[in-house]
Amino acid sequence: MSIRFTARARKGLVALTVAAGLIVGAAGCGDSGDAKKPESSASGSRDGGSKPSAQEGQSGAPLAELRGPDGLLLQIVSAQRDSGGFVTVNGTLKNDGAKSAVIPAQMSGDETEIIKHGQSLGGATLVDSKGKKRYYVLRDTDGRPLTTIGLTTIDSGQTLPVFMQFPSPPSDTTDVSLQLPTFSSATIKISG
């Protein structure tokens, strides 16, 4: 009986996560009417098709910067805890190098279920050193990672909005380490 309850609870959590992800995605697609939108972010969204955008209206210094190979730079602009039991991390992936960079396949991680859906940020993890736990990117019911997908190459100077969703650490945990294969790790503060 407890196995059925656990399976039913997992299905409910996955359905809730997918619904919340769709709501967050739909909110990011709306026009905020802000004339100060960065030109490179808007063109990055047009080039990539259905890539989700980072939350608009974020300002100030990034929470963290993770440096990767070939001049790649991941800037984290927000890490928001939601009432649905997950954390959404938003940022930008930028090529600071002098020439186009191929996005490393290792960023998708090594899980077959995630890899079969294309290149993504599916290898990202949040590490709660206080609680001694590691949180992996959430997936929808088809096994797709709840992150930006379809990453292949990025031109010199180009910036792409990215996001990742994780299960939420306990509410008293605010500082976690964000890790992404082939990138340096950094400590970020979860708000909300």
TrEMBL record:
<keyword id="KW-0732">Signal</keyword>
<feature type="signal peptide">
    <location>
        <begin position="1"/>
        <end position="26"/>
    </location>
</feature>
<protein>
    <recommendedName>
        <fullName>Secreted protein</fullName>
    </recommendedName>
</protein>
<feature type="region of interest" description="Disordered">
    <location>
        <begin position="30"/>
        <end position="65"/>
    </location>
</feature>
